[in-house]
Design goal:
about 425 residues; 2 domains; FAD/NAD(P)-binding domain; CHP04046_FMN-dependent; oxidoreductase; globular; alpha/beta; seven-stranded mixed sheet; 11 helices; monooxygenase; about 20% strand; five-stranded parallel sheet; FAD/NAD-bd_sf
Length: about 425
């Protein structure tokens, strides 16, 4: 039996989550000299260490990696760090300021406390806090369609977070379902290893790695795309549904062109719809999904062309993309599992949030998603950090976490200062209060 080590302790601030978002919040809390505690269910940067495949690399260039006071510190700013390099860089950030982090603590429930603040119940005892920052992302439960339960027992099923490498899977063909960043990169990993891959193609958009002499990310950064507030891009519902563009940083970075994979032998299908008598049924939307992905890529290139022309930038011309493969009119929409010998299905259709343990209705919309303004909720003293599109396009990347965390902590510190000098003196934060 685990011995509790919390016995009703109270902190001005508790941060839930010890990833890059939670420790970025801790960095700014330390700068404000605000007493706090960070609680992490596993260990710091758990997802990076334990939920990425072996060949994983960033899809954004290293120069976009910025944590508070800790920009990318390597010698390849235009490259793409692989998993071990990412973890080492993040661990150097942690070591630089030694956050008050307790690992191996599961937060089981957060509830409002009578008189203000919150009660935080954990598997190691209960605590309370005046303010709580939720830095737990939204990628909690892998999405798996109902038909997964009807698949034969001999098939191995796993989601993207459990995939490691081709050799760790049973021999035989693999069905990858979903073409977001994870699905496309896992399909590529298997394809490069010589495995027979069947890929269910969804509506995710794509983007080129390089265009007119530069990484597309560099062009978009110059154009200010990563700093445009979310409300100027999308509605609230669109934010929740938006898929990331697929591309890769592997081997120095390149496009992911599913048509090229098909030309090389990968079997492409439309979106997975159902299972019927040992056959998987796919939609008739493969051509549409491929065309729409290419159209998004073309629009991004057109915006770069306009930027280059507007600023009279000397950049090499590039011919328009031409599809190298097209599905035939009678392209298969059924896959016989026995006939193809598929042994593994990898679900890469995203993750659903689960905030049911946070018993604070005012902080959520009707769907159970955090309702906030730049991380500040309607429930006094409750904040969220590390959400996709929390403020800008860059919020879903390491690129903007320092800025997002600083905003949340500045708001929190202003609230604490506004509570009066008596509170400030007793919590050693008078240096941050302004007359």
């Amino acid at each position: 039996m685990t011995t509790p080590f919390f016995a009703g302790q109270h902190y001005p601030v508790i941060v839930v989550g010890g990833g890059q978002a939670g420790l970025s919040a801790s960095y700014w809390l330390c700068r404000h000299d605000i007493d706090h505690l960070v609680l992490e269910k596993h260990q710091a940067f758990h997802a990076w260490k334990n939920e990425r495949w072996d060949s994983f690399s960033l899809v954004t260039p290293n120069w976009q990696c910025r944590l508070p006071g800790h920009p990318y510190d390597g010698d390849d700013p235009d490259g793409f760090m692989v998993k071990d390099q990412i973890v080492a860089w993040m661990e150097r950030f942690r070591a630089a300021f030694s956050p008050p982090l307790r690992e191996g603590v599961t937060v089981q429930e957060v509830t409002p406390r009578s008189g203000g603040g919150y009660r935080v119940r954990t598997d190691r005892g209960a605590l309370s806090a005046d303010r709580v920052i939720m830095a737990v992302s939204v990628y909690h439960q892998p999405k798996v369609p109902p038909c997964a339960d009807a698949l034969p027992d001999h098939l191995t099923q796993l989601d993207a977070s459990a995939y490691r490498n081709p050799d760790a899977l049973p021999e035989g063909p693999v069905l990858v379902v979903g073409t977001g960043q994870s699905g496309c990169q896992i399909a590529e990993d298997l394809h490069l290893a010589g495995r027979e891959v069947h890929l269910a193609v969804g509506p995710a958009p794509r983007v080129s790695r390089f265009y007119r002499g530069r990484d597309v990310v560099a062009w978009l950064d110059d154009m200010g795309h990563y700093r445009i507030p979310v409300r100027e891009h999308l509605s609230e519902d669109q934010v929740k549904a938006k898929a990331n563009h697929y591309v890769t940083g592997r081997d120095g970075g390149r496009d992911i062109d599913l048509r090229r994979f098909a030309l090389e032998g990968m079997r492409l299908y439309g979106r997975l719809e159902d299972l019927e008598g040992g056959r998987i049924l796919f939609g008739h939307d493969l051509r549409e999904n491929l065309d729409n992905a290419d159209a998004t890529n073309a629009r991004i290139k057109a915006s770069i062309d306009e930027h280059i022309a507007r600023h009279n930038i000397d950049a090499p011309a590039e011919a328009p993309y031409r599809p190298v493969w097209e599905p035939a009119p009678d392209h298969p929409t059924r896959l016989d599992l026995d006939a193809t010998g598929i042994t593994t299905v990898i679900w890469c259709i995203g993750y659903a949030p689960d905030f049911s343990w946070i018993k604070v209705p005012a902080a959520f919309d009707d769907s159970g998603y955090p309702k906030h303004e730049r991380g500040v909720t309607a429930s006094p003293g409750l904040y969220f950090l590390g959400l996709p599109w929390q403020h800008t396009w860059g919020s879903g990347r390491i690129y903007a976490i320092a800025e997002d965390a600083e905003h949340v902590v500045d708001h929190l510190a202003d609230e604490l200062c506004a509570s009066g000098p008596g509170w400030a003196r007793s919590h050693n934060t008078t240096q941050n209060c302004r007359p």
